[in-house]
Design goal:
The chain is α/β, with parallel strands linked by helices. The chain is 40% helix and 13% strand. Helix 3 packs across helix 4. The chain is globular and about 50 Å long.
């Protein structure tokens, strides 16, 4: 989709185009060799398939032949990452795998209580600040602004800022 947006909007000369790639550390579900291989496959799909494709224009899916994709290399102005934990590591890994572009983070804090989410958000900001010394980070946004039936946000459904929202805003 972002490659098509890049084409339609005129590439580097048009309005900025950002990706939004869901990244996470993939861990085996148990100590078996099959679980280890599955975690490696999921890791490759999350990190290498699209970030590598943005870098060199080749889509690499484990178990399939590599496929060059026209206009994929460099087809974004901002590499957007959807991250739940390990923000600093995710930023460095994306900078290593993707083409040299500014990075943006869409963050959804972990935790089942607002206090846990506020603590996770404070940790996220510390990690962003550490990485910002080395990397060009252009934006950090909260994935869910208001509570919904399926997601806890940084504000209540009636728009009252929660502790996690304060942590996000003061970060």
């Amino acid at each position: 989709a972002w490659r098509d947006a890049w084409r339609v909007l005129g590439g580097a000369g048009g309005p900025p185009v950002a990706t939004s790639i869901d990244v996470a550390v993939e861990r085996p579900t148990d100590p078996s060799e099959a679980a280890l291989q599955e975690a490696r496959r999921r890791d490759h799909l999350r990190w290498h398939t699209w970030l590598g494709g943005l870098h060199d224009g080749i889509v690499r899916i484990p178990g399939r032949a590599d496929r060059p994709l026209d206009d994929l290399a460099g087809a974004c102005d901002i590499v957007g990452l959807a991250v739940r934990t390990g923000v600093e590591a995710a930023l460095y890994r994306a900078a290593e795998l993707a083409p040299p572009r500014p990075l943006a983070v869409t963050y959804r804090p972990t935790g089942s209580t607002d206090t846990e989410q506020a603590d996770a958000t404070a940790t996220m900001w510390r990690e962003v600040r550490r990485a910002a010394g080395d990397l060009r980070i252009v934006a950090v946004t909260a994935a869910t602004l208001c509570d919904t039936a399926t997601h806890a946000g940084i504000a209540t459904a009636d728009r009252r800022v929660k502790d996690s929202g304060e942590a996000f805003l003061t970060g």
